[in-house]
Amino acid sequence: MALDGIPKMKIVHGDAGYVLEDVPHLTDFIPDLPTYPNPLQDNPAYSVVKQYFVNHDDTVAQKIVVQKDSTRGTHFRRAGPRQKVYFESDEVQACIVTCGGLCPGLNTVIREIVCGLAYMYGVTNIIGIEDGYKGFYARNTISLSPRSVNDIHKRGGTILNTSRGGHVTSKIVDSIQDRGINQVYILGGDGTQRGASVIFEEIQRRGLKVAVAGIPKTIDNDIAVIDKSFGFDTAVEEAQRAINAAHVEAESFENGIGLVKLMGRYSGFIAMYATLASRDVDCCLIPESPFYLEGPGGLFEFMEKRLKENGHMVLVVAEGAGQELIAESLRTMNHQDASGNKLLLDVGLWLSQKIKDHFANKGKIPINLKYIDPTYMIRAIPSNASDNVYCTLLAHSAIHGAMAGYTGFTVGPVNGRHAYIPFHRVTEKQNKVVITDRMWARLLSSTNQPSFLSPIDMEQVKKEDEPANQLFDQNSIADDYHVESTEGNNNGLPDGSTSC
Ligand SMILES: Nc1ncnc2c1ncn2[C@@H]1O[C@H](COP(=O)(O)OP(=O)(O)OP(=O)(O)O)[C@@H](O)[C@H]1O
Ligand SMILES: O=P(O)(O)OC[C@H]1O[C@](O)(CO)[C@@H](O)[C@@H]1O
Ligand SMILES: [Mg+2]
């Protein structure tokens, strides 16, 4: 339950600075719940697996690059099936809801929750809530079975539909209670996980035996703690097609410029990875790295040089880049969508016009600019093979956690191992590209673009940047965050927040 807006944390301390940031369990607020043997032990597919069940005290380390004298640091509870479960198969009434924007793989996760519950735990009562959170109280539900979801993973979008806004906690929990739902699987981004957290708190306050499991979804990859979000790889792959087209167009005309706008409201991961993967991009602009157009060291100077050298160039811009520059030139109001997310000004159109105006000036070279905006194309497609496997593991981890009585958690890989992470850890901040980290340096050295930072700016940025996870980059200095940023308690949390 929240105290001054801060959720109560379940922290366990161990030797050598070991800290477990645990997730809630139904028995925390409903004592004496009966347990049952896990039906998986009799499942022919799983019964042969040596050590199939996860040990009760298995945890996953957040920081795996360590030094001789390092403390052990923060850990999360390892995901996976437990010996004992807190639900009998025919007692389970599960529901699934998808919220926020689309993302490749949503249908795969839905399919695998339905099939996983049915095939691993013999659960048959599963319903889909349509249209996101508001569907809890505004729409009828749809019944889901392995048969009805059999080939949905081949389709983009979500068969349940999704929405932004419309989260009224009390009405959602009333609906959960009235329908007798006792496992809630919620797929969505940071906003959705915030919504899931307050649903969990209300369920806990009412003392209901209902497990709430969040499955993080966003192509922006802006969810903290987890290695990466599903659909991200698919989106990066699809972005290659747009970049290829931009390159072909640019190459085929004198002083051709291909400009591609990619998604990324606050985080430039898609633009950064699409650029690194393509090798055809001359300059990548992301929200985390401020840039400027005119004067020495600016974008236009770089473009003139590149066009002189190569006769063409490709620019990739993340939708959230340069917002302050556009706002300055357009003096626009601050608009929001139904979920309260800032509505962005179109950097692609703005930049196209600025580039055209610049090169139209007397004495400048004539250019051929082609602007490609594949925004929704990269997220409205089915997930690729590796995302499909990832989605399956996420669904299974969520099911195992809920069946084992864990609740109020988001599931996701931390350093490659699936873990149960308390909601507040994935919602307290967003994952961003750290421009003082090695991955951004790799990009700068691969495109050879300017950093747009003066030596003074660089010092400032180094001081300000809080390293976050960088997509499996185990060598990243970002991993040092949890030691360097702690004061006193060495667990990455504010002092005084360690009581359990
Ligand atoms: N603080 C909050 N408390 C309760 N509900 C919230 C909160 N923030 C967002 N939500 C709800 O979560 C849902 C999804 O939020 P949002 O539109 O921000 O997308 P998201 O989950 O962050 O996904 P995306 O990756 O597309 O941004 C909406 O229904 C919104 O009302
Ligand atoms: O147009 P919609 O559906 O609100 O979604 C756009 C947003 O969704 C995201 O893909 C995920 O948050 C952002 O990159 C983008 O700004
Ligand atoms: Mg969001």
From TrEMBL:
<keyword id="KW-0963">Cytoplasm</keyword>
<feature type="binding site">
    <location>
        <begin position="376"/>
        <end position="379"/>
    </location>
    <ligand>
        <name>substrate</name>
    </ligand>
</feature>
<feature type="binding site">
    <location>
        <position position="190"/>
    </location>
    <ligand>
        <name>Mg(2+)</name>
    </ligand>
</feature>
<feature type="binding site">
    <location>
        <begin position="164"/>
        <end position="165"/>
    </location>
    <ligand>
        <name>ATP</name>
    </ligand>
</feature>
<comment type="function">
    <text>Catalyzes the phosphorylation of D-fructose 6-phosphate to fructose 1,6-bisphosphate by ATP, the first committing step of glycolysis.</text>
</comment>
<keyword id="KW-0021">Allosteric enzyme</keyword>
<protein>
    <recommendedName>
        <fullName>ATP-dependent 6-phosphofructokinase</fullName>
        <ecNumber>2.7.1.11</ecNumber>
    </recommendedName>
</protein>
<feature type="domain" description="Phosphofructokinase">
    <location>
        <begin position="95"/>
        <end position="400"/>
    </location>
</feature>
<dbReference type="GO" id="GO:0005829">
    <property type="term" value="C:cytosol"/>
</dbReference>
<comment type="pathway">
    <text>Carbohydrate degradation; glycolysis; D-glyceraldehyde 3-phosphate and glycerone phosphate from D-glucose: step 3/4.</text>
</comment>
<feature type="binding site">
    <location>
        <begin position="189"/>
        <end position="192"/>
    </location>
    <ligand>
        <name>ATP</name>
    </ligand>
</feature>
<dbReference type="Pfam" id="PF00365">
    <property type="entry name" value="PFK"/>
</dbReference>
<feature type="binding site">
    <location>
        <position position="319"/>
    </location>
    <ligand>
        <name>substrate</name>
    </ligand>
</feature>
<dbReference type="InterPro" id="IPR050929">
    <property type="entry name" value="PFKA"/>
</dbReference>
<dbReference type="InterPro" id="IPR012004">
    <property type="entry name" value="PyroP-dep_PFK_TP0108"/>
</dbReference>
<feature type="binding site">
    <location>
        <position position="101"/>
    </location>
    <ligand>
        <name>ATP</name>
    </ligand>
</feature>
<dbReference type="InterPro" id="IPR000023">
    <property type="entry name" value="Phosphofructokinase_dom"/>
</dbReference>
<dbReference type="GO" id="GO:0006002">
    <property type="term" value="P:fructose 6-phosphate metabolic process"/>
</dbReference>
<feature type="binding site">
    <location>
        <begin position="263"/>
        <end position="265"/>
    </location>
    <ligand>
        <name>substrate</name>
    </ligand>
</feature>
<dbReference type="GO" id="GO:0005524">
    <property type="term" value="F:ATP binding"/>
</dbReference>
<feature type="site" description="Important for substrate specificity; cannot use PPi as phosphoryl donor">
    <location>
        <position position="191"/>
    </location>
</feature>
<keyword id="KW-0460">Magnesium</keyword>
<dbReference type="GO" id="GO:0046872">
    <property type="term" value="F:metal ion binding"/>
</dbReference>
<keyword id="KW-0324">Glycolysis</keyword>
<keyword id="KW-0479">Metal-binding</keyword>
<feature type="active site" description="Proton acceptor">
    <location>
        <position position="220"/>
    </location>
</feature>
<keyword id="KW-0808">Transferase</keyword>
<dbReference type="InterPro" id="IPR035966">
    <property type="entry name" value="PKF_sf"/>
</dbReference>
<keyword id="KW-0067">ATP-binding</keyword>
<dbReference type="GO" id="GO:0003872">
    <property type="term" value="F:6-phosphofructokinase activity"/>
</dbReference>
<dbReference type="InterPro" id="IPR022953">
    <property type="entry name" value="ATP_PFK"/>
</dbReference>
<keyword id="KW-0547">Nucleotide-binding</keyword>
<comment type="subunit">
    <text>Homotetramer.</text>
</comment>
<feature type="binding site">
    <location>
        <begin position="218"/>
        <end position="220"/>
    </location>
    <ligand>
        <name>substrate</name>
    </ligand>
</feature>
<comment type="similarity">
    <text>Belongs to the phosphofructokinase type A (PFKA) family. PPi-dependent PFK group II subfamily. Atypical ATP-dependent clade 'X' sub-subfamily.</text>
</comment>
<keyword id="KW-0418">Kinase</keyword>
